[in-house]
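Q: How would the C-alpha cells look for this protein?
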Amino acid sequence: MSSLYNLSPIPHILDIRCPKCGGDARFEFGEVVKIKRRADVPFFRDSHLFEYRQVTDSCGHRWHAAIYYAALHGGSTNAIRGLPEGYQPSDWDHSEYLRWGHTVIGAYACHSCHDVRRHDLSWPTDAFFQIDYRGETLWAFHRESAIALQNYIAASHRDADTSPWSRMLMHVPTHFLAASARDAVLTRLERLLGSERSSRKSTIAKR
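A: Here is the predicted structure in C-alpha cell form.
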C-alpha cells in the first residue's frame, strides 16, 4: 500500500468493520477539549458524558482533558448540559477540517448488531470499505468516498478531481488503476457497496 495513500487526511466520521459482528459501523472521532481550571476537573471526571484524562503533549507539558464521544450519544453534542461557566457544548463540535490521523480515540455504533462502544481506531485496518487485489489493499473512508473511488477507477480519463476525496484519489496506487485490474477491482467494490446497502436496509426493516 502506498504510504501517501495511507496518510490521506481523514474525515471525522468513518465506516469501519464492527469489532463485534464484522458489519458496517459508523465510527466517530472523540473530541478533546482542554479543561480550563483545576476546579473544573471534578465535574468532567465524574460526568457520565465525558472521559477525563491527563494528557502529555509533545513538549512534555501535562494538562487536563475532557473527551466527548458523540457516537455514544446519538451522534451530536445535544446531550451536553449543565457545563461549568466558560464552556459551551459547541466546544466539542468537530472542526471543519479533516484530521491527519494522529488521534485514534473515538466510538462506533453498528448498523447490524447495534453495538455502541468506545474504540481505538486502527486505520486503514478497520476500514469497512476495503478490498484486496493481488496482495494489495484498497480502502475508502465511507460509502460516499467508496462511490467516488469506484467512479474514479471506472473512468476512461482521470482528470483532476475536485471532490472532498481528491487527495485520497490522487494517491490511489497504480496497481488498482491498471486496465488489467479494472474489472476485478470494480466488481469487488460493487459487491462491497451492495453488502453495505443490504445491511442498512435490513436494519431499517427490523426497526
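DSSP finds five helices and nine strands in the chain.

The chain has a mean pLDDT of 88.

Upvote if useful.
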